[in-house]
């Protein structure tokens, strides 16, 4: 997205901007861990090795801290009958598996670290994808929400959301003006 102002030109990365807006929403939603759950018509059954099943049981409290409950379903299996309402529709099973994989890979993780990782993952999955065209309404909505963010300048991964070129920068790029060192002039 491009935006012009009196002081120059702004280039906005719509994916990074949406990621930032989403991140702040999910960080709050995950931090509050409401009792709002989406019940599944068909429960999700997850099968693991014996060692992984033991590890999941040992770290189940971390998953429960964000509203994800895995119930025992046999020796090495678990069933998920509901999930938090903030899960993206159509990606529930992938999201659950990814969250369980973090617990298996990282072992004992603090609740705060797990919530942070979950907020970042969810914000990215729900963000506008690169090369996706936004209509005027969507673009305006994004531009209205972004300044309300705690940090509107970077996505949760640290990438810049926008780049600013001042009028002077633009004039230099188009060779309308030169830096003093390029023109051969000496400055005092």
Task: Describe, in short, the structure shown.
Helix 1 runs antiparallel to helix 5. The protein is α+β, with helices and mostly antiparallel strands.
What do you see in this structure?
It comes from Lacticaseibacillus paracasei subsp. paracasei Lpp126. Pfam families: MutL_C. Residues 1-134 form the MutL C-terminal dimerisation domain. InterPro entries: MutL/Mlh/Pms-like (IPR038973), MutL_C (IPR014790), MutL_C_dimsub (IPR042120), MutL_C_regsub (IPR042121), MutL_C_sf (IPR037198). This is DNA mismatch repair protein. The chain is an alpha+beta fold. The chain has 2 domains: 2-25 and 129-173, formyl-coa transferase, domain 3 (2-Layer Sandwich), CATH 3.30.1540; 35-125, Ribosomal Protein S8, Chain: A, domain 1. It is 43% helix and 19% strand. The protein has helices at 14-32, 50-58, 60-64, 92-106, 111-125, 136-145, 167-173, and strands spanning 2-5, 8-12, 37-47, 71-72, 77-84, 162-166. The strands form 2 sheets. A 3-stranded antiparallel β-sheet has the order 1-2-6. The protein has a 3-stranded antiparallel β-sheet with strand order 3-5-4, covered by helices on one side. α1 runs antiparallel to α5 (111-125). The radius of gyration is 23 Å and the shape is elongated. The two termini are 41 Å apart.
